């Protein structure tokens, strides 16, 4: 089971630009590196990251072998209404992990 860390404000004013930072623990093996026994370590990477705000995608990224272990992603979105942000990572070997965070939006 992966461990994800998400940093974002719990509250914001309507129309405010907020920063969201997400990090997930994952080895991101490229499939090119030899292991201790000399054999190639099988590829195991996270291929995609998506953030949905109340069901609408606000950010997405396609990841490749060149991304380091424990990928860190930072992006901005606009606080429009109170609701839930859902973060989803998908990868090789049927890897899938989701997290949800709540954002409370107040009048400007």
TrEMBL record:
Gene3D superfamilies: Immunoglobulins (2.60.40.10). It comes from the Bacteria. InterPro entries: Ig-like_fold, Ig_E-set, SoxZ, SoxZ_dom. Residues 9-100 form the Sulphur oxidation protein SoxZ domain. This is Thiosulfate oxidation carrier complex protein SoxZ. It comes from Duganella aceris. The lineage of its organism: Bacteria, Pseudomonadati, Pseudomonadota, Betaproteobacteria, Burkholderiales. The gene is soxZ.
